[in-house]
Amino acid sequence: MGQLDPVVNLTGQKMSEFESSYQKEIQAKADLLDRLIEKIYRQEAEATHDDITIALNRMVECKSRELSERTRELEKVYSALNLAQSELLQAQKMEAIGRLTAGVAHEINTPVQFVGDSVCFVQEGVQDLLCLMGELNALMDHGTEHLSPKCQEAMATIRHLKVQYDLPYLAEQLPRALERAVEGLGRIREIVASMKAFSYPDQKAMAPYDLVASLKMALSLAKNEYKYFASVETEFNTIPVVECHSGEINQVFLNLIVNAAHAVEEVTTCTGEMGRIVVRTRRDESDVVVEISDTGSGIPKDIQSKIFAPFFTTKEIGKGTGQGLAISRQVVEETHNGSLTFESEVGKGTTFFIRLPIRQPDCSVPRVLVDEAA
After folding, report:
1. What one-character DSSP code corresponds to residue 330?
2. Of 173, 169, 177, 220, nearest to 196 (Cα)?
3. Phi first, then psi: what are they for 294, rounded to 5°?
4. Alpha carbon distance 80, 86 (integer Å)
5. Is residue 283 within 8 Å of 264, Cβ to Cβ?
6. Which are the contacts of 299, defined by CB distance < 8 A and separation ≥ 6?
7. Which residues pair with 232 in a beta bridge?
8. How far is the C-alpha of 276 from the C-alpha of 348, rounded, in Å?
9. Does position 215 have pLDDT exceeding 90, yes or no?
């Protein structure tokens, strides 16, 4: 037994060393495993953080797009509100001006009627006096040898007074002056009638309306805009009456004629040559088409897409509001189910086409033809 002790001791020492080494290795493996687990957790945390960041960025982008779209929608609504407010103010202003114009036209009409009647009476009286003077001149030219000296002296005095007051000239010019006065009074009556028709408030329901009569009134009212710059030609073909709001259509025609006059004025001012405005009417199946052409400078292509935009104008300050064409298109297309288009060539002019249905949807219009204009 005594001889085995060293071996036993040696084996126990090795076992102890082995256990110690094994424990160290296990501890090292455990530490390595802990580090790996920690690394995995850290990587997972980082990956989760990146996913959250990406998700948040996507949410921010989505919300930004929604906010931008909402902002654009609000801007459109705001612009529409501004336009509606402007149109409302314009409508109120035009309504007030219309009432004032109707009253003024009525007040002008009465004295014009008095003056017209008086001028016609004077014209007839002057004609009678001229006839009387002609008879007296014939008698005076018959010879005065058989008359007494006093009568001959009186006849000589009459001949002298005729020369002194230039009676032949008066006899020639008085009828012409009175004709011009009658013509001027007729023009005033025409303008007053047009003003009353244009300022008369529209009824709520559409009614059959003579577009040729409307065009004639518009040309009459706008004459001061074009008479020094353009001649006007009309080609009024036979067309039926059209179901519409007459006051609104009157305004459309007036706007387009005034625009044509201004376009021609620009060219005439530069060249000194008179321009031309042509107004045509025709029927196209179930529609009536009105064409208003001018020999102005035309509309450049780069602004053709803008001319119906509210407040867009190429006219100088104080001459245009940029509302005429926008309102005209709204009236024709939205209110009357028609179309307002144009063709233009730079250097040659522009033609606007107003197309209106003869009968509005769900409305009944009698098929009455308008007498063809002379």
Report:
1. I
2. 220
3. -140, 160
4. 10
5. no
6. 307, 342, 344, 346, 350
7. 277
8. 11
9. yes
Alpha-carbon gap, residue 370 to 372, rounded angstroms: 6
- Residues constituting the chain: 374
Phi, psi of 361 (to 5 degrees): -55, 135
pTM for this prediction: 0.56
Q: Are 241 and 368 in contact (CB under 8 A)?
A: yes
Cα–Cα distance for residue pair 258/101, rounded to 1 Å = 19
In terms of phi and psi (left: phi > 0; alpha: psi -120 to 50; beta: otherwise), the region of 82 is alpha
β-bridge mates for residue 355, sequence order:
289, 339
Give me the residues paired with residue 278 across strands. Answer: 233, 293
Q: Determine whether 4 is exposed, middle or buried from the number of CB atoms within 10 Å of its CB (0-12, 13-18, 19+).
A: exposed
Can you tell me the distance from the alpha carbon of 294 to that of 259, in angstroms, rounded to the nearest whole number?
A: 9
Distance from chain centroid for Cα 369: 29
Sequence-distant (6+) residues with CB within 8 A of 294 are 230, 260, 261, 263, 264, 275, 276, 277, 278, 349, 350, 351
Tell me which amino acid residue 357 is. P
The C-alpha atoms of residue 19 and residue 121 are separated, in whole angstroms, by: 148
pLDDT tier for residue 276 given thresholds of 50, 70 and 90: very high
Alpha-carbon separation of residue 238 from 10, 138, 253, 279 (angstroms): 136, 54, 18, 14
Q: Do residues 299 and 307 touch, judged by C-beta distance below 8 A?
A: yes
For tokens 């084996």, what's the residue? 11
- Interval 218-228 mean pLDDT: 88
Q: Which helix (H) or strand (E) holds 287?
A: strand 287-294
Give the three-state DSSP class for 63: helix
The answer to whether the beta carbons of residues 283 and 268 sit under 8 Å apart is no
Q: Which whole number is the average pLDDT over 54-82?
A: 81
Residues 176 and 183: their CA atoms lie apart, in Å, by 10
Q: Report the alpha-carbon distance of residue 128 to residue 211 in Å, rounded.
A: 43
Eight-state DSSP code of residue 306: G
Sheet of strand 349-357: strand arrangement: 230-236, 275-284, 287-294, 349-357, 339-345
What does the block give as tokens for 206?
């559409």
